[in-house]
Amino acid sequence: MKTIIAACSQNLSGSRASLQTALRTLLAVPWPSQRDVGSALQLLAVLQWVLSFLLLGIVSLLVLIYLLFTSLWLIPVLYLAWIIFDWDTPEKGGRRLPCLRRWTVWKHFRDYFPVKLVKTHDLSPRHNYIIGSHPHGILCVGAFCNFITGSTGFEELFPGIHSFLTTLAGNFRLPVFREYLMSGGLFPVTRRAIGYLLSQKGTGNAVAIVIGGAAESLSCRPGVTTLILKNRKGFVRMALRHGAFLVPSFSFGENDLFRQVVFEEGSWMRSVQRRFQKMIGFAPCLFYGRGITSCRSRGFLPYARPITTVVGEPVPVPKVENPSRELVDQYHELYIRALLKLFNENKTKYGLSESDELHIL
């Protein structure tokens, strides 16, 4: 009996010593610093955004199709009926949720790069505006962060102005994804949607349009400042019809977020990209960024490069119900001049050299 008690005591002592050793080892491990925690939150914020934009629509569609062949078939059927009933909502003001705009996640998203918004001139709330956003880049990070989230203080810099961002109309045909886009304040880049924002919501509205679109993303790479703009005049015609002032904006650093395999004009791969773009609205870019675990590995996350979006001087535009081609050309030229002025006055402040030029195609 005494032997058993002695053995138990010895085991208990050994267990206590092992526990103390484990605790000492645990306490010796350095706890993550506030900076490490902040970096992790920033990475997670960017990860959820990239996954949402790249996968949410397709995954939701596949899940609903799968559910059609299960006992839960009523869910996709009811949702399809809802989409049919709600079909025109994206072009009639949408369903913006102010709480989503103020989501804390967007502050971590902003700080990852970081993204900064710079104001050069006031915007009067007595007018409406069409903001031209340049360049497109791969995922329009600058436009999204500045004109959709409240993280960079757009409404504080421009009191009385409410910003909206337009994107491909096809995105609003994808289930669940359409609700996500509308809740954030995005709208399809159609005449009807833009016209509604500029005519049915009073004044003080600023509709941001990434004018270069998918075609511009095909030429996106670090050190290149080429815009697709010469033949993009629909936004000017819309501005004239509604008397909306034209405002140029440029996101310095947007093209530095990813590396892209750029195919030369005339190559068969470029032709495939062009045809794909015409059929479905966006261009299949071959790009890469950093990995999830390390900035030295390759992956689908953007590199942490600073983005500075500078909003320029508004170009006053009269309201003309049926503007002539000559009038559209005139204000299109005025807009290009304002954009070139904005670029040249700010390029050396935000990472470019004096010799860098803005090429407009």
TrEMBL record:
Similarity comment: Belongs to the diacylglycerol acyltransferase family.
Enzyme class: transferase
EC number(s) recorded for this UniProt protein: 2.3.1.-
Cell location: Endoplasmic reticulum membrane
Membrane topology value: Multi-pass membrane protein
GO molecular function: O-acyltransferase activity
Gene Ontology cellular component terms for the protein in this record: endoplasmic reticulum membrane
Keyword match Endoplasmic reticulum: yes
Alphabetical keyword list: Acyltransferase, Endoplasmic reticulum, Lipid biosynthesis, Lipid metabolism, Membrane, Transferase, Transmembrane, Transmembrane helix
Descriptive protein name: Acyltransferase
